[in-house]
Amino acid sequence: TFTMFSNSVTNGGKTTLAEKLKNMLPNCDLISQDDFFKPESEVETDERGFKLYDVLDALYMDEMVTSIRNWMKSPASSGVVTEEPQNMCDNLKNVYILIVEGFLLYNYEPLNELWDRRYFLTLPYEECKRRRSTRVYQPADTPGYFDGHVWPMYLKYKNELEQNASVQVDYLDGTKSQEELLSYVYSDIIQELNKLRE
């Protein structure tokens, strides 16, 4: 099995990238961190009234780790589509690939031992804020939420990641086109898979 994951600032394009990769790679499955959010009633609120969604405590991380480990134990029984894309090299047809995508993945130690490849999509402040403003969230962002909680938490966790020399991450420019990002990551994964099979 081969596990990789895509981490990103909010609206960095990780979900779109992960879903496109899933359709291009052999025997590939996808787990999304968004599926492990706690219900709103269990998410803490700070003194400003902001719901603290952009922190690890807002997620059932133990359940996420269990889901990933269960997939790794038995990928063939996970329901993953086993039809290989055309022109796939014969030596990759028996490889199972898991993509994990989310916004807080590299700062949770129990996950860090699981990955073969790590990607992190970045965006500058203005572009990130612009993209965020075009999305509809449930619950909806309150006034000042992006500047008061979302962006500071992104900077905090990204800084922690950059200072952790034991975690190797490939940083990607989220302002580049989806086609360019997809081409780069796909080629990189195929190269890594070929190395593993040699």
UniProtKB/TrEMBL annotation:
Pfam families: AAA_18
InterPro entries listed in its UniProt record: P-loop_NTPase (IPR027417)
Pathway: Cofactor biosynthesis; NAD(+) biosynthesis
UniProt xrefs under Gene3D superfamilies: P-loop containing nucleotide triphosphate hydrolases
UniProt keyword annotations, A-Z: ATP-binding, Kinase, Magnesium, Metal-binding, Nucleotide-binding, Pyridine nucleotide biosynthesis, Transferase
One of the GO BP terms on file: pyridine nucleotide biosynthetic process
Domain of life where this protein originates: Eukaryota
Catalysed transformations (reactions): beta-D-ribosylnicotinate + ATP = nicotinate beta-D-ribonucleotide + ADP + H(+); beta-nicotinamide D-riboside + ATP = beta-nicotinamide D-ribonucleotide + ADP + H(+)
GO cellular component: cytosol
GO MF annotation: an example: ATP binding
Signal peptide start-end: none
UniProt similarity note: Belongs to the uridine kinase family. NRK subfamily.
Protein name: NRK1 kinase
